[in-house]
Write a structure and sequence with these properties.
Length: 146
């Protein structure tokens, strides 16, 4: 009986592998191994997918998995952010990560204060935003990345 179970388990694993139900490791999946739905969502990253670090691929696959559950506005935001991210240099990406980490470490009150200031900034005419960016490039360095 033990031999039968071992064969059955082996057959099950082989069938799962061929059906695509099991992939070796999400972090090692190449662009060609992604499903059509995953490629559709992650298309802005197509040219660089195979060079992403394993943790970056895992993060992007999580986004692709959650994408169908998002409303249209959230999906549009995800697409905009992926497109912006794909245009950034490695240096800009690292700075964006650091800024995000700094923001996440703030108190809820400070986060709300910064969100309010950001909304006020967004309401300004473009000419005023350009002036502010020119006067204080360090403060407004990411202001055009929405």
């Amino acid at each position: 009986m033990g031999r039968f179970k071992a064969r059955l388990t082996l057959v099950t694993i082989v069938l799962m592998l061929f059906s695509g139900a099991v992939l070796a490791d999400d972090s090692t999946v190449s662009w060609t191994q992604l499903t059509d739905d995953q490629r559709k969502v992650l298309n802005p990253l197509a040219s660089e997918w195979d060079t992403l670090r394993p943790w970056q691929r895992e993060k992007m696959l999580d986004i692709a998995k959650d994408y169908p559950k998002m409303d249209a506005a959230k999906q549009a935001l995800v697409q905009k952010r992926l497109a912006n991210w794909s245009k950034m240099t490695p240096y800009e990406r690292e700075n964006a990560r650091k800024s995000h980490q700094q923001f996440q470490s703030l108190s809820p009150e400070k986060k709300n204060e910064l969100r309010k200031k950001w909304m006020e900034y967004q309401k300004l005419p473009e000419s005023e935003r350009e002036r502010l960016r020119a006067e204080s490039p360090d403060v407004y360095k990411d202001a055009d990345l929405n």
